[in-house]
Amino acid sequence: MTDLGSPGDDRARRPGDGPEAVASQIADAVDSLAALWSLAAQHASLRLSPHQLRALRTLQTTPDLNLTALADRLDIGLPTASRLCDRLAAAGLLERAPHPDTRREVRLRLTPHGRHVLSDVAGRRVQALATTLAAMEPAERAALRHGLRRFLAAQDTVLPRPDGRPGPR
Is residue 129 part of a domain? Predict the structure, then answer.
């Protein structure tokens, strides 16, 4: 388990608590969270790989992408994206629909079954997190929530927006 130090801990101000040291500790915690996240997803009604889940989530948040746009968003090659979509379509999670304006372009959409599977995975992940959070004291949960909000606010000031310009997303 990663020891991130508590607010009242005198060790919280030691020299090893600079941004790099804390980043290393948080990276360990993220690895643990990712394992919890993955395990919860594997207990869903349909087992999907992390790449398949990511593709479905991308299509959930940005419907009607074409294959090229999906490949770009997932940062994978076009042939890999095509095979991924073939498997998702064969499982009944994704459908291909012709673009209304261009016959050569195909839009990708989640099926109702695909939306149901994503909902199942999300519910299982929330439950796994809630179980872990229930083992914490209310003040610890509040501190974690506050810290995460501050982290996201700081991230918005240092990372570019999706359009490439600096500033909050």
Answer: yes
Candidates 100, 98, 117; CA nearest to 108 is 98
Q: Is 41 within a domain?
A: yes
- 93 with 133, same domain: the answer is no
Task: Tell me the sheet residues that pair with 107.
Answer: 66, 97
Q: Is 155 exposed, middle or buried (0-12, 13-18, 19+ CB in 10 A)?
A: exposed
**Residue % of the chain over a pLDDT of 90:** 52
Q: What is the DSSP letter of 92?
A: T
Q: What amino acid is encoded at 73 in this protein?
A: R
Q: State the average pLDDT over residues 40-65.
A: 88
Residue with tokens 């500033």: 167
Residue 61: give the domain boundaries.
49-110
Query: Do 72 and 152 lie in a common domain?
Result: no
Cβ burial, residue 110 (10 Å; 0-12/13-18/19+): buried
Residue 15: pLDDT above 90? no
Lowest mean pLDDT among 7-21, 33-47, 60-74, 149-163: 7-21
